[in-house]
Specification:
The protein is an alpha+beta fold. It has 3 domains: about 110 residues, Acyl-CoA dehydrogenase/oxidase, N-terminal domain (Butyryl-Coa Dehydrogenase, subunit A, domain 1); about 110 residues, Butyryl-CoA Dehydrogenase, subunit A, domain 2 (Beta Barrel), CATH 2.40.110; about 150 residues, Butyryl-CoA Dehydrogenase, subunit A, domain 3 (Up-down Bundle), CATH 1.20.140.10. It contains 11 helices and 9 strands. The strands form 3 sheets. A 4-stranded antiparallel β-sheet has the order 2-3-7-6, with no helix packed on it. A hairpin with a 2-residue loop joins strand 2 and strand 3. Helix 5 runs antiparallel to helix 7. The longest helix has about 35 residues. The radius of gyration is 21 Å and the shape is globular.
Length: about 375
């Protein structure tokens, strides 16, 4: 463990208080304006939420995977947009540098990401390359001591506010992992432009937009690790971690939804009694709690295996598939328990119902997780 039990308990208590006292009361404003209050961003920095996974050597907390998912369980108790702000700094935006960056890249960027002074953004998805990331077309052509980037990225999280983009680009026209590299491109670099913020079904405040590179000239020192062909492999190595992180977020949101649904059921009366007295309402709560418990156990088990150094590709895909589908079912039941009120924006379940739909799509769709799981099962039994 990175932290002793007492310190971890203090951290979890602090995050829980922050969520309950600061984030939950700010949910409605964030949903209506799409603007993250600067005061809350600063408090997130002070709590160390941007540097959960980054080593203390660079100013982070350096949490283990189990510790990280336990923090994310707490962050999931509120709008996922708050967690999304720090998500890239915690995940692939920093971990790619941790795993494959040069000493110079680590020393320069990791402290900025850990402190939240710079918000990271991971630019992989393109108009014609989503689940099939190997088909990306953004090119990076060597020109002396520089590379020239051309291409368009789509649905890029945090792009409108990012200070650093981790950009996946093709350095060879061959199809294969060796043809794709990663570049660390700072916001404001000539040739880098942003599209209009996307209008989404949910997760207001979690900003996304297109990122366009037109003859964007970056120094060769921006190549991750100083070596071509490592970008795609590095991204795949950190996918397991990202999938566990998102799975933990789904668990946290499901806990919030079960709590909200149970409280409403105890307060709402029909036929002269609380609807919580009706067994069919109880059944929906029971099913939700059971699935939530199963997902929580899966995530903790997989996180502990990762911390022991075991390969968790199979377990991470199982967690992502089950937890993201689970929270969708829990959200649906929560709306049903609220009845007509659940369809109204006055209640948080209406917003969460839309918010959680994304978890079955990004960080690898449910169908991609099924493919990964089947591949790993067949590999183990050949």
């Amino acid at each position: 463990m990175a932290l002793d039990n007492e310190t971890l308990t203090l951290l979890l208590d602090a995050v829980r208080r922050f969520v309950n006292e600061r984030l939950v009361p700010a949910e409605d404003e964030l949903a209506s304006t799409g603007v993250m209050p600067e005061g809350i961003v600063q408090e997130m920095r002070e709590l160390g939420l941007f540097g959960l996974s980054i080593s203390p050597d660079y100013g982070g907390l350096g949490l283990t995977m189990e510790e990280e998912v336990r923090v994310v369980f707490e962050l999931g108790q509120t709008s996922p947009a708050f967690r999304s702000l720090a998500g890239t700094n915690i995940g692939i935006g920093s971990q790619s540098i941790v795993m494959s960056g040069t000493d110079e890249q680590r020393n320069h960027y990791l402290p900025l990401l850990a402190s939240g002074e710079v918000v990271g953004s991971f630019a992989l998805t393109e108009p014609e390359a989503g689940s099939d990331a190997m088909s990306l077309r953004t090119s990076a052509v060597r020109d002396g001591d520089h590379y020239i980037l051309n291409g368009t990225k789509r649905f890029i999280t945090n792009a409108p506010i990012a200070g650093l983009f981790s950009v996946m680009a093709r350095t060879s026209q061959e199809r294969g992992a060796d043809s794709i590299s990663c570049f660390l491109v700072e916001a404001g670099t000539p040739g880098l432009t942003l599209g209009k913020p996307d209008k989404k079904m949910g997760q207001a405040g979690a900003l996304t937009c297109d990122v366009v590179f037109e003859d964007c000239r970056v120094p060769a020192s921006s190549l991750l690790g100083g070596k071509e062909g490592t970008g795609f492999r590095t991204a795949m190595r950190v996918l397991d971690k990202g999938r566990l992180h998102i799975s933990a977020l789904c668990v946290g949101i499901a806990e919030r939804l079960v709590r909200d649904a149970a409280r409403y059921a105890l307060e709402r009366k029909q036929f002269g009694q609380p609807i919580a007295d009706f067994q069919l309402v109880q059944a929906m709560l029971a099913d939700s709690q059971t699935e939530l418990y199963a997902a929580r156990c899966m995530v903790l088990d997989a996180a502990r295996k990762r911390d022991r150094g075991e390969n968790t590709t199979l377990e991470a895909a199982c967690c992502k598939l089950y937890a993201s589908e689970m929270v969708g079912r829990v959200a649906d039941r929560a709306v049903q328990i609220h009845g007509g009120a659940g369809y109204m924006a006055e209640y948080a379940v209406e917003r969460f119902y839309r918010d959680v739909r994304l978890f079955r799509i990004y960080e690898g769709t449910s169908q991609v997780q099924q493919v990964v799981i089947a591949r790993e099962v067949l590999k183990a039994h050949r």
